């Protein structure tokens, strides 16, 4: 590989922040329009929800390939290939009014956009180390959290003024901008290639997956991510169809959820070094368990209403945001020599876990709050048990990389 001048840190930081939300944004920007899309395509609620689930699963599977490619081809070439595939899927979405083709295009889009989630995690250790890397990882997660903050509100406004198809035009334009930045601005940063050999990939993957701590990290991250996804999949129908509120109203609710997540993530920057990560994450898990129990009690007492749906979910989302970046920082630092593959496996595994949560939530009835509340309780108890297992040997260790 030819020697390249290093990229300017500001360019890399901006690119990472711009790549961070696109995968989540491609879900959240049109969740407010799911009821309208169901009507336009003439399909059932479960079928239109499948367009989200299929995208997420293809997004998960795509991440399996981009890690090895990023370590073999380089970061720049892999990004250009993936973003090109994403743009192809985006164009196909806008070219059909048949639901089956729409679903296929969402799969192409999901496979393509997965490159950003993987390569941004590999770009960070290519250019930063130590405290700088820790700060970049935090901003990466903050950028990821901007998706659920901005996208639903933007999607609701686009839907009201220009129809839900305008959301797809926005995704196409955003991807095109990223493609141009990478094509004209990014130099290759991979210092040493890893041969693209299936046997070597399998051996390295087995080594990474054999790490019990890595397993627990991606499971916890997947469950935390699943909280956001399950709300975004079920709540549009609960709020609009059952509680008879407008798409703009739901967009504002989704904005509040994104703000809660963002606040949880950003709180790590404020309290880093003051409270041990073990105490912080385990306390957050305990609060989520208690809040989920309260949500179940509210569902039994009052059923589905805005208060019992929104307030407990806001709290659970906030403390999931506290936990998520600690687990990401912990997991991505385990294998710096295999950053691409490790990021690929991490992204695939946590997204697959979140996809399973999303699939389960798509089976829930939308006219009752209790099933969703019970799902949140299961998530809170499971993630709490795994967190206690990770931190039981280091009760006072401060994880500053969060």
UniProtKB/TrEMBL annotation:
Transmembrane regions listed in the UniProt entry: 12-36, 48-66, 78-95, 101-124, 136-156, 168-186, 216-239, 245-266, 278-300, 306-325, 337-360, 372-391
UniProt similarity note: Belongs to the major facilitator superfamily. Bcr/CmlA family.
Protein location: Cell inner membrane; Cell membrane
Topology class, membrane: Multi-pass membrane protein
Protein name: Bcr/CflA family efflux transporter
Domain Major facilitator superfamily (MFS) profile: 9-397
Coiled coil (UniProt feature): none
UniProtKB keywords: Cell inner membrane, Cell membrane, Membrane, Transmembrane, Transmembrane helix, Transport
Top-level taxon in the UniProt lineage: Bacteria
PROSITE patterns per record: MFS (PS50850)
Naturally occurring in which organism (per UniProt): Iodobacter violaceini
Keyword Cell inner membrane: yes
InterPro entries: Efflux_drug-R_Bcr/CmlA, MFS, MFS_dom, MFS_trans_sf
